[in-house]
Design brief:
about 20% strand; TIM Barrel; globular; about 30% helix; alpha/beta; 8 helices
């Protein structure tokens, strides 16, 4: 993969964003370039994956992360969240960056991951440094996994699920399973719920794509019906909570990761 052109570089820190899951969330984007991911999900708000990768590498030096965090020590947020323009576990310095964020911002650290690389012990060890990990799981079988998430070659649902089970055993913090529902997988809710239940998450986030993307969101009553399949688990849906009022540090940088 060639070097990123300077014009493609973005700031590392963005937000705070008003999150239904994480309230006032200060984003950290260790990719900080056009969308770089191991998936090309049909519902992604960021559009098609420009750089589809599975090999971990350093996209943004940790020194740059530290410099931006230093300027924001007094920012009032509920979480520092590693997310951004793709899959954060592709960044080989994720663990370092989590440690540095924890040392500088007075808020717990969350990571939003598509779970694609969680079969890697190094990835699990770095994710375990976070206080809260939100892990995607959108399908109960390999065929639907490939249609919904369109993973890079070599990534299998079986490896993802086994990696999540191992991570659940070693992680001392909170684990949430996030499931994105839309027309292609809504009739598989009971099977997905059974799979999610086997992971014993602390929370289940039942989502639907509310931001502009190629697929239509499910209306609130349909999502509420789907949530009932997860009976016995701690469930929240995209329509349930209110979002706090926040002022972004840089509206353009935030909007590039969180389109309205």
């Amino acid at each position: 993969m060639g070097a990123t052109h300077p014009s493609e570089l973005k700031k590392v820190i963005y937000g705070p964003v008003p999150s239904w899951r994480l309230r006032r969330s200060l984003g950290v984007d260790l990719l900080s370039r056009p969308k770089t991911c191991s998936f090309d999900c049909t519902y992604c708000q960021l559009g098609p994956t420009r750089h589809k990768l599975t090999r971990r590498q350093e996209f943004v030096p940790t020194s740059r992360v530290i410099a931006e965090l230093e300027a924001l020590r007094e920012v009032a947020v509920d979480f520092v969240t590693f997310s951004g323009m793709g899959e954060p576990t592709l960044a080989s310095n994720l663990g370092e960056a989590i440690v540095e964020a924890s040392a500088r911002i007075r808020a717990p650290v969350a990571v939003l991951t598509n779970s694609s690389l969680i079969a890697d012990p190094a990835v699990r060890a770095e994710l375990a440094l976070a206080d809260f990990v939100v892990a995607k799981l959108d399908a109960p079988d390999e065929d639907l996994f490939r249609r919904v998430n369109r993973p890079a070659q070599g990534i299998t649902l079986q490896a993802v699920v086994e990696g999540l089970r191992q991570f659940r055993r070693q992680h001392q913090g909170r684990l949430a399973a996030q499931v994105m529902f839309y027309q292609d997988n809504q009739d598989r809710a009971s099977e997905i719920a059974a799979l999610v239940s086997s992971l014993h998450p602390d929370e289940v986030q039942v989502n639907t794509p509310l931001r502009p993307c190629p697929v239509k969101p499910l209306p609130a009553p349909e999502l509420a019906e789907i949530a009932r399949a997860f009976e016995g688990l701690n469930v929240m849906t995209a329509y349930d909570p209110s979002r706090p009022a926040v002022q972004a540090l840089d509206t353009a940088e935030t909007a590039s990761r969180r389109p309205r």
